[in-house]
Known about the structure:
Two copies of one chain form a homodimer. Helix content of chain A is about 40%, strand content about 20%.
Amino acid sequence: MRWSGWGDPGAAHGLPGGVKLLLAAVLGRIPAARPAPDLAEVTVTTPPLDDADVAALASVVGAAHVDVGREARMLHAGGKSTPDLLRRRQAEQVAPGVVVLPGSEDEVAAVLAVAGERSLAVVPFGGGTAVTGGLEPDAGAHRGVVSLDLRRLAGLVTLDTTAQEATLWAGTTAPAAESALGEQGFELGHFPQSFEFATLGGFAAMRSSGQSSAGYGRFDAMVTGLRVVTPTGLLDLGRAPGSAAGPDLVRWFLGSEGAFGVITQVRVRVHPTPEVRLFDAWTFGDFVAGADALRRVAQLGTGPTVLRLSDEDETAVSLAQVGNLGKALARGCSAVVLHEGPDGLAQARREATTRVLREAGGRPAAEKLAVSWDHGRFKAPYLRDALLDNGVFCETLETATTWSNLHALKTAVTGALADGLAKEGAKSRVLCHVSHVYPTGASLYFTVIAGLGVDPLVPWERVKHRVNDAITAAGATISHHHGVGADHAPWLEQEIGEVGLRMLRAVKAELDPAGIMNPGALLGPTTPPRPAGQGG
Amino acid sequence: MRWSGWGDPGAAHGLPGGVKLLLAAVLGRIPAARPAPDLAEVTVTTPPLDDADVAALASVVGAAHVDVGREARMLHAGGKSTPDLLRRRQAEQVAPGVVVLPGSEDEVAAVLAVAGERSLAVVPFGGGTAVTGGLEPDAGAHRGVVSLDLRRLAGLVTLDTTAQEATLWAGTTAPAAESALGEQGFELGHFPQSFEFATLGGFAAMRSSGQSSAGYGRFDAMVTGLRVVTPTGLLDLGRAPGSAAGPDLVRWFLGSEGAFGVITQVRVRVHPTPEVRLFDAWTFGDFVAGADALRRVAQLGTGPTVLRLSDEDETAVSLAQVGNLGKALARGCSAVVLHEGPDGLAQARREATTRVLREAGGRPAAEKLAVSWDHGRFKAPYLRDALLDNGVFCETLETATTWSNLHALKTAVTGALADGLAKEGAKSRVLCHVSHVYPTGASLYFTVIAGLGVDPLVPWERVKHRVNDAITAAGATISHHHGVGADHAPWLEQEIGEVGLRMLRAVKAELDPAGIMNPGALLGPTTPPRPAGQGG
């Protein structure tokens, strides 16, 4: 993972010539970006932890697993939102005081104990792909920040092939999980855009949703059990596939964002590796017609694994990318549909979905649109790096609501983005798609590009504030699958109310009385900032 | 609802002659039962609330909606477990001090405020069908008990036919909900055995699961939003069909059992009234083969609405009840399967399920078995009253686990029941069925009949204790859909751990600092009993 951008450094690329032309047409002349600095050039303003802290941590995990080096600390300096990446381009940076890699659940508990004794905040770190400020090295009221990297707690613990249930260490990356399961003929089937780097613990902590959620469910729905180490004890949750033994506490830790403890193991439902994968592309006259078709499929439950719909603008960009400029100029919306499973069942499900989409006015489109989506689906973040290199601001955000409220929400968010950016003097283009469907509603995923100038951080913060207000005012959720982090924390009260916030804080006070777990994330800055000049 | 038995007094009936013969063969001679007393004969040992309390409550809800009458109080004296009904047969009874019927959410909040000021416990009451001691008139540390009956908060609030989502008042009974939805062409599809009397708020508070859960999901899965009045404020939860805005607090109140507040509204997913209902009955060589077949269907997701399997003994009893004694003597297990929905889709799903069941060794059986199950499915509790009248102890209990652990669990629970009852000197017969299936596991539902003598309460308590220990030791859940109540509370710590219990208590302390909400239920007796001679 690049410290200052997305993903595999070897996979980074420049901006394709066609995209450059398109951008110029849409956004006008864009001033050149400040070049991304080399790691050696940046000043890390937060000092590493002192020797006594390091020694205490080393006594728990071993000296080889405590790292105060500049590279390790900068690799753990934040997530991968566009603001995160813009901050990585600045001359001065903040970073955690140390990176610690525990090798067992007991070591996690011992690290939390040391942190509590020494007043150090702990930020659990999986794949580092968070995009809502959940990995900020925020010490809260404490002396410094420990980044608790879970990479050594990785791998398959058990696979129950009868129950089709697997237990994995939380630090297992999604590709590693699929590889281990695949060897035994099984699949998890969770494919968010962060797939290549993110971990199972991260998916659970952030309530991730993947591109195959129409069929396999969001990550919430896959989880049947969790082990969580809190500062005041261990939880081993999930005794049965269905239970009425009081509130389902597993659900408390899905979305817990490291604020109450560290998820160490995740138990998930898996399924046999699909025999067949049947891709289809569809075209609809407009987004309203397309969304109506998706709604019918979701409500009848005909069983696609993937069901996505791009709006008119996103469709045009996608078509242009695959060289189909003629179609790109025509209006219309394209959808991608995938059916998987045992051959006969997948075919039968595809037929049922096809009938519904036809009745709803859909027309079959070239299958290559679906296949090219499949091939390119983890590449967008690399394109974002190239856009930022070229001075083009690019970010994504997402929400969800009922089918009845979907178009009003889309209008409100698009308007808040476009108006907000215009107010900042920036031309912009907003693309949108439906990526996740439910019987009662769907998510909306927005991609925005804009010419926001050489210092887009502060103006974007104002725009994002406006968008969050628009989402909340429209009655939608502040996040469908990116989470709360520090960025959305100010809007959480409008989502769950003052009473809901008090519930979160009460559990926080019970499980983490010293407030060392991921200060600022989820609950916002509830503790006063530490006085200047103290520790570090 | 009968105060001392199940359901509609007019539907009560004696024991069919055939059943009497069967019982004599299985259980031997049963001593005659103590006859159920008339309401006028019983002594209610707990006094009604005093005039000042009644006046304070009347000032909130109106004098017409505060009832200290013996009949109202005894109708709210508990739930409908067999121990509840046995207690109703005793000469001395305990009951809440008053029954209050609020007419609005504001009145619920005001009743809680009055109760807090006057140190009165509040037991929320829906249909009164609880079977795990969740409606005990336990004052905890307080002066007396208010039974908060939600029947006036009933009816459909809104139906969104596009999103297929309905909001209903928590006091709406299941038949009333189906009737209101049915008028507009929709159905909820939640059919637990308590269907005829239970309320939507009760389903939510207890994490109910219905007989159509294979298709429509357990009640947890249907709920998209809740409104809850707590002693310290109102919650309005559920902003989107999917969200990553922190922990899903809706899930906290599913299974909350009135311990944190009063659920006043429930928002649920609904579906169009099915065009067709296709019943099938199947036979398997034995329970192991049948369970394996159900597992395959659940894991492939071929889409039945109902999928149940009786074990050999339950199958024999069912066949005997429909007069098929020849088949009853043969060994084997019968399954009931239902597919519903639009005609074509239901047929296609039925074909897919049929293929799997055949491949798993199933043989189609007479459809009338399925139809007779459908006709009789709400009648079992009436039969229990007749059994109790005839001195036969009869109770049900349930749990759930993974497919891998299912048979070990069945053996453990059956053994604990049979051995425990034998130790009490009672002959018994244990029947079992799988009523709810998931991809990773299933529930087991046990019915036990025994000749436990004229005073079965205490010996049954010992047996039940042994069964709960067996369930816990087998790694299964203490309840799949009956809940915790007071009866299972001592086993909750083994289910969620000491840390989990602390979470529940922390939220309880935050939302209900005076501890007035349903003392003893869910969390067990956390407060010391009030000193003798004080108030009441």
